[in-house]
Amino acid sequence: MKYIKIFLIIIIPFIFTACFIPERRLYFSWNRPQKIKDTCDYEFNVNTNISLIKTERGYLLDTDKEIYYRLGEEKPYNIDDYYYVMNEVMTFMSNNRNCILIVEGHADITGHGNGDINYRLSERRASVIRDVILSSGFFHKRVQIFAYSDIIPKYITNISQNRRVDFIALKCERELSNYLNYYSNYYSNITAFSSNINE
């Protein structure tokens, strides 16, 4: 009887510590907590019609078609290509539920130097696309817009194709702060450079 009491005095604190104190709890294989994965640590699930191009600001979604605009307009004119691209983009977002989509609006150099008309126009182009994506049921925090005016031309010969939108994918919300830093630095440097040239 004496040995049983000694055994209980030794074993009860061990059982209490092992089972009830979270920091010292013993876990069996069926109740061991899983390591929390970094939400940014994954590979994009890419469907066949989109390729990803890694850039400074994120992953550019590249399809074999683009969305274009007529001069001064904020709604696309190449409707078949528009539906194709939007379907591809929304499929990509459905397949990558943590990703943040950046819609970048662009304009061509027509109207350059005429106030901020190109900036406002490129912002409205991106806003229209964002609203369509959100109307399909995506959470508003997952879709951000940025206006680039005419400062990132993609085409030299056919400048009308610079009236476009680009899509940038970020793996998680944390990468958005890197994009914001890039955007503010890039935009302020380019606009400062342009104003020096115009003077």
Automatic annotation (TrEMBL):
Keyword Transmembrane helix: yes
Gene3D superfamilies: OmpA-like domain
Pfam families to which the protein is assigned, alphabetical: OmpA
OmpA-like domain segment(s): 86-155
Keywords carried by this UniProt record: Membrane, Transmembrane, Transmembrane helix
PROSITE patterns assigned to the protein according to its UniProt record, in alphabetical order: PROKAR_LIPOPROTEIN
Transmembrane segments: 6-22
Keyword field contains Oxidoreductase: no
Protein name: OmpA family protein
Taxonomic source organism: Brachyspira innocens
